[in-house]
Amino acid sequence: MNQNTSSTRDGSTPLDDSFERYLQDKGKGRGGDGGNYRRNAARELERFAEWAAGDRGDDDWTGITTDDVDRKPTFEDLDERVFREYARHLAGDRGLKQNTVQTYYRYISAWCGWCVNEGYLEAHYAQRASAMAPLPEDDGRKPGDQQAWTSEQRHAFTRHVDERARDAVEAYTTLSEDTDPLDKQRARYAALKAARDRALVFVLAYTAVRVGELLRDPNDPRRRGVRWEDLSLDDGSMDVYRKKQQWDAASLPDPVISPLRSYRKLMDPPTDRWPVFSTFDQRTLATLVQDELADRGKHPDTIDDRRSEFARDLLLALDEDVRPPSITTDGARSILQRLSEAAEIDIDHPKHDYLAPHGGRRGMGEVLVRAFGYTVAARYLDNSEEMVRERYSHIEAGELGDVATEALSEIDDYLGTGASPG
């Protein structure tokens, strides 16, 4: 520890004085103010600070400071016994699963390690064996990441959204010439929405791209959602911002090409910088259109007149090239919930009553591992082979079980004939 650090960060520093700088270091984007990790870590640090101050826990819990001290908890109050008590506090919450307890504790442990490097603490107390002893065994499962779309579910889901989009597009394209303009616009809007939903489901079902790589993340400015300029339908590829923090090409297999082509033709975006999966939220689009046209110098009355010419603000946005944002990852989950219910898909899962986005990726992983093995699956999933083997270990276990069954059958056959298996 250098002298400058130790002179400005002594034990009397309140714990929460370190939070913002830690979160900036861990955050993403300009100023470190984005990213899911930052948001989740901030939540857990706030909970830890409340617990340390005596604001969380049992009724008789007064915090980590002594009763005769009236101040915020500081770094001089921390030692391995404090982290042991917090681990016990987390483990005692019956509403948390084992792996969730481990996850929450890791956020606090990571902050503790950072505090050591920054000179707030002398030792990484949170990683000591005695501190971690109350934590439950990690079952190795990632919370909520176990659903996998089966082949039957994938086929039923894609068939449903395909039929829905075909019907909507046909209803729009077969309208008579004397159809009221606003009615024709409503039909086009319905066709666009159905075509977008179909393209989204097909991409999630067959590409195995992470939903966070495909759509907008409000907490990470770099993840603005794929645009048409990122797609090469002729080459069957799509540029996405990967989990490893760099742009990379993802494959677009044959089943997704036609839905994307049809959707693009119907939308006819003014530029290739438009998002592929645009939001259709009326409130968002109304505000966006009004603000953008006002910035272009349009009078409020003129803006109102222009909006009245269109059945939906999305269609005005297309006409005026007012680029909307991509749907968010949460928005995609809402869409899949709506579509799963409409498709009446049979879903048996303890956490999700709909076909969740990660289930499409995991389902494709199952297909690839079984068909081509772990090495090819790892390349397609943009994961290490080691991780893919771990995630899909049940497949190898099943195959080994088949081998064992076959071996036992051969032994039984030998024994049945009186022959020696050796």
Automatic annotation (TrEMBL):
Region annotated Disordered, chain positions: 1-38
SUPFAM superfamilies per the UniProt record, alphabetical: DNA breaking-rejoining enzymes
Biological processes, Gene Ontology terms: DNA integration; DNA recombination
Pfam family, one: Phage_int_SAM_5
UniProt keyword list: DNA integration, DNA recombination, DNA-binding
Polar residues compositional bias, start-end: 1-11
Annotated ranges, domain Core-binding (CB): 10-116
Name used for this protein in its record: Phage integrase SAM-like domain-containing protein
Gene3D superfamilies referenced in this protein's UniProt entry, alphabetically: 1.10.150.130, Intergrase catalytic core (1.10.443.10)
Gene Ontology MF terms in the entry: DNA binding
Organism of origin: Halorussus aquaticus
Biased amino acid composition, Basic and acidic residues: 18-31
